[in-house]
Amino acid sequence: MRCDDLHDGEVYARILLSENNFPGQNELDRMGSEECAAASEEFLDHDSNYPPLDIHFLFPKDSGWQGHVRWITCIYMSPAGVIRKPVLQNGTPYTVEQKRYAVTVQSYNREFPKFQALRGQWTERSEKAGAMQQIVWWEVLELTSAPWSPEMQPLINDWVAKKRAELVDWTEAAAAGDAKQLEEALANQAQDNGLAEEKKVRDALRFTRN
């Protein structure tokens, strides 16, 4: 099938794995999510907006692993059901404010899933919370470093207010003296993450890229 025909999905990366032993489905799920998200950022033009895309991945089961089929296949699928032309042809150059938004959130979007995946001691998670605190501090700085357009500024103000609350939560998580204090701070962070406010910003910017 040619990519300019209607198609259900588009393979954009195949990632070879180095593990000799089958790591288990949970670990492959984690690896697939992280590796395919990173591969997507490399595949798509860094300065373009794209229609919504769902990222899926396939990986071998244990039987395939023993047969040396050891790679993850990354696939784009469209929430609309079909992809009408090659994904790279669907991009449009960022506007100035779309670009500013994309640069602001890229570190958070990359590092927060890694934080969520941590399963170590609470001290390790607290240390990582310190890194998240620095990222959110930088986000607030970028969002407030210069005015936005009149139609965007009120939405940005609402988002910044939530980000400042989240910054306090990450600071408390990084300074936690025990596991209970850490979990309390992270529970507050979950309430203050500003996702609803950020969605309003994305919608107003017509920012549809994953």
Low-confidence stretches: none
* Shape, per Cα inertia axes: flat
Structural class: mainly alpha
Rg, alpha carbons: 20 Å
Order of helices and strands: EHEEHEEHHHHH
User: What is the topology, as strand order, of the major beta sheet?
Assistant: 1-4-3
Share of residues in helices? 40-55%
Q: Helical stretch count?
A: 7
Query: How many β-strand runs?
Result: 5
In whole angstroms, the N-to-C terminal distance is 26 Å
Describe the sheet with the most strands.
3 strands, antiparallel
Number of domains: 2
- Overall pLDDT metric: 90
- Which band does the percent of strand residues land in? 5-15%
Protein name: Septum formation
Structural write-up:
The protein has 210 residues and is mostly helical. It folds into 2 domains: 9-92, no CATH class; 94-205. The protein contains 7 helices and 5 strands, in the order βαββαββααααα. The chain has helices at 25-43, 62-66, 96-117, 122-144, 153-174, 179-191, 195-205; strands spanning 9-16, 48-49, 54-58, 71-77, 92-93. The protein starts with 8 loop residues before the first strand and ends in a 5-residue tail after the last helix.
Any key phrases for this structure?
210 residues; mainly alpha; 3-stranded antiparallel β-sheet; two-stranded antiparallel sheet; 5 strands; flat; Septum formation
SSE topology sketch:
Elements: E1 9-16, H1 25-43, E2 48-49, E3 54-58, H2 62-66, E4 71-77, E5 92-93, H3 96-117, H4 122-144, H5 153-174, H6 179-191, H7 195-205
Antiparallel strand pairs: 1-4, 2-5, 3-4
